[in-house]
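As promised in the previous annual report, we have extended the structural survey to additional targets. Below is the entry for YceI family protein.
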Amino acid sequence: MAKTYQVDPAHSSVTFTVKHMMISKVKGEFKEFDIKANGEPNDLANASVKVTIQAASIDTNNTDRDNHLRSGDFFNAEEYPHLVFHSTSFRSKGGGEFELTGDLTIRGTTREETFEVEYEGSAKDPWGNMKHAFSGEGSLNREDYGLTWNQALEAGGVLVDKKVKFEFELQFTEVEA
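The corresponding structure token record, generated without further manual editing, is:
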């Protein structure tokens, strides 16, 4: 029987990287998110995952930039407070590696995206709770979701790349269904 899992936010992160001015990379993270999963950690074929990220929790270590990212130029966090991902399939690649495919919704636009996921293992914590860890990565085109703001650079190119790379480190705890 499939089990239900809740992400442990104190031991998890959802981060991203995007090129700035075509020469450097800016990193950031979403501080508030909820992830629920159902399935068996060692057999994800029938597993399901729902990820809900608070758009306003974006943090790039720069208040002005964060406020701009929350504005209508980017996430429009007031009107679209959540980024949501619903899995549609896990495909085993062997050796604890998977392709996780699902529907990602940002700013009211839903598109299918695929992320690479690796099962890192399971262990009991000092209080007897079984923990399960996963890491993953993927990328998307932010313009596909209406995040199209940009500025042309005098020397050519643009201020913000359209490709955004995501990484996540997640630890789950089994919960009562």
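The helical segments are 63-70. The chain has a mean pLDDT of 90. These points will be discussed at the next consortium meeting with the crystallography subgroup.
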